[in-house]
Amino acid sequence: MIKYVLLLLPLFARAGEDYKASLFGIRSDGSTLNTRSIQYAVDYINNKGGGTLVFEVGRYITGSIHLKSNVCIELKEGAVLVGSLNPFDYDKNGFTALLLADSQQNITITGKGIIDGQGRQVAANIVALVHGGVIKDPLVQDRPNETIRPMLIYFKSCSNVTIKNVTLKNAASWVETYDQCQNLSIDSIHVYSKAYWNNDGVDIVDCNHASVTNCFIDAADDGICLKSHSASASCDNVLIHGCTIRSSASAIKFGTASFGGFNHIRIIQNKVYDTYRSAVALEAVDGGSIKDVVVDSLEAINTGNAIFIRAGNRNGNHTSSVSDIHLSNISVEIATTKADAGYEYEGPVEDEPRNISPMVFAGLPGVPLTGIHLSNITITYPGGGNAFIANRSLDALDSIPELPAKYPEFSMFKELPAWALYIRHAKDVDMQQVTFTCAAKDYRTAVVLDDVQSANITALTIKEPGNKKPVFQHNTKGIAIK
Fold first, then answer.
1. Sign of the C-alpha dihedral computed for residues 213, 217, 219 and 222 taken in this order
2. 224 and 97, same structural domain?
């Protein structure tokens, strides 16, 4: 029996006085640049031992603000903190952001107001400065580097962080990143960010005791992304619960930055829709490991892929590992066509030609995925795979490339010989009460096991036109199908 441990994080209890922004000469007229007056207010409250800076209704233009310990920013309903359009109004601490904090404690951003980064215009202004020779940047794919485009929030090495209720809009890069933070709570926020490339909704990097709960995220890039930038750190004890996510990449993703690892992660009662790539992608390719992950009560509709699990070796020196993964009570409807068609900044069409891809669990030779458990899973596919579009026969499994160093995505192998589930290089797999439905006839078989050692499959139901053998095995041992 899986134990679901909900992480109870200590929230910052507001201490000290409330200070109205107007007290410090901060203007809500939508034209005054308030950077210095807001920073003075933050420093003043910090020196007083803590308190809350309250923004009433209005539009407050600002460049980068450095949040300090024991300071709460409260945006009342109707208050909008607006990022300056001038790229030189932003500071950089490894990354550029509107709100920065480094090694601070007990910091909070709350209220029913909005933080609007005006990211599309800011990015366009950066591009103009690069073309003018004022800023040096290679403009890879005609985009400025992510580190010089401002996020809305970048907090590093902070503890007891609370982000609650606010709406975050229109970042020029990743919307918000929390890097090596402790005791982080992100609750009931709304993220609408389709302003530019790399608009990840929430990035959790090497954090310990973090939760993302009851949030709505509509992002041009990954919705909620866990990363590990340091081989000596990891994401530990993370809860993602009660969120609704739409993405032109993957909704919930680990990696690809995976130098350390991801341990004790709980992904519970989330909903995904109109998502181009995977509803959940667990990817370790830089030497780190993924251990003890629970995905339970996931509902996804109109998504390009259900779940993708990958262990790779991107730098050629350190092979990552994946173990102890529990997937349960999951319902997914796979999109017939491009799931994010019509959204701004759609995911790129790539890895073609291929038919609609199956769910993919792929390790590497000698480094299998270990301990993969599935129970009460229902996935509906449109079917219609056509051998004249692309063809990978069951007799040619050894020709499927390993691609250990390739950027991991569910479509990376192009055509696969299964329409529902493809497992390669895995051991100790347990499947119970799994149903795969194929709406239209497909030339491929439902499930392919390739180099799978020790698997127990109970109550597998395959619904598809025709009477093909539902499971094909290649180079397997110890497979029990009941």
1. positive
2. no
Q: Of 203, 167, 211, nearest to 10 (Cα)?
A: 211
Q: Tell me, what CATH number does 21's domain have?
A: 2.160.20.10
Burial of 121 (0-12, 13-18, 19+ CB in 10 A): middle
Give the pLDDT confidence of 271-289 residue by residue, as tens digits. 999 999 999 999 999 999 9
- Domain contains 162: no
Domains of the chain: total: 2
Report the C-alpha gap between 67 and 195 in whole angstroms: 25
Residue 455 has pLDDT above 80, yes or no: yes
Q: Is the per-residue pLDDT at 1 higher than 50?
A: no
The dihedral built from the CA positions of residue 27, 43, 77 and 118, taken in this order, carries a sign that is positive
Q: Find, among 114, 109, 62, the residue nearest to 83 by Cα.
A: 62
Say whether 376 sits in a helix, a strand or coil.
strand
Residue 183 lies in a domain: no
Q: Are residues 423 and 479 in the same domain?
A: yes
10 Å Cβ neighbour count for 349?
A: 9
Model-level pTM? 0.96
Same domain, 344 and 466: yes
Q: What is the pLDDT of residue 5?
A: 45
Q: Which range marks the domain in which residue 263 is found?
A: 200-482
